[in-house]
Amino acid sequence: MSDQSFKIIPEENSHVQAVEDLLDLAFGPGRFAKTAYRLREGVEALPELSFAGFLGGDLIATIRFWPVKIGTDTPAVMLGPLAVDPASRGKGWGLDMIAAGLDQAKIQGHQLVVLVGDETYYARQKFKKAPPGQIIMPGPCDPQRLLYCELEAGVFGSVEGMISRVK
Ligand SMILES: CC(C)(COP(=O)(O)OP(=O)(O)OC[C@H]1O[C@@H](n2cnc3c(N)ncnc32)[C@H](O)[C@@H]1OP(=O)(O)O)[C@@H](O)C(=O)NCCC(=O)NCCS
Q1: 1 within domain boundaries
Q2: Residue among 81, 50, 55, 77 at smallest CA distance from 66
Q3: Ligand 1 site, residue 18, Cβ cutoff 6 A
Q4: Boundaries of domain holding 50
Q5: In a mutational test of the pocket of ligand 1, which residue from 84, 85, 122, 137 has the highest number of ligand atoms less than 8 Å from its CB?
Q6: I need a labelling partner for 22 at 20 to 30 A (CA). Which of 14, 82, 138, 155 fits?
Q7: CB of 121 closer than 6 A to ligand 1?
Q8: Which ligand 1 atom sits closest to the C-alpha of 118?
Q9: Model pTM score
Q10: What is the pLDDT of residues 68-122, one digit of tens each?
């Protein structure tokens, strides 16, 4: 009998099509129009911070992070996209994916994570709403959804400016 426990493993090249299919299902084809995608154009997700969640042989969850900078020179990583297959939601696996990503980001020396998402969800993994205007997305973005998580206590206090791509 195959193992049906949920497992999180580093994303591999062979997972890419299943990840794209899951993202199409979760966000729809309009996902590329989101402002977050402006920060991803021509930039690869950080391979060491890309994870796949498996149930048996099926890829049912994905999380990726992208390198960004804030203002002139503050390095950070942007979480997203995160998606869990609709049939497997509500079991805590999305939060497990976030926890796995944050743990690994900290191990690798990253100090600050930002994202655009629902505060009520991400607050469960220590994300907070950024004070209005302190950090800015390079396009339309509901400021209520612009969140940050410090992996090093206090680092956000001195950060300000536009979030931009790092190539
Ligand atoms: C958001 C998503 C990743 C959550 O995955 P999940 O595995 O179902 O989440 P978990 O099981 O870890 O957490 C479930 C809990 O979070 C809550 N929750 C889920 N999505 C939420 C949201 N958008 N806002 C607030 N709370 C949310 C659920 O109500 C549930 O609460 P409960 O524990 O009190 O019952 C999944 O619904 C998804 O893929 N959605 C479509 C893509 C998406 O919106 N991604 C996030 C982009 S910001």
Answers
A1: no
A2: 77
A3: no
A4: 6-165
A5: 84
A6: 138
A7: yes
A8: 24
A9: 0.96
A10: 999 999 999 999 999 999 999 999 999 999 999 999 999 999 999 999 999 999 9
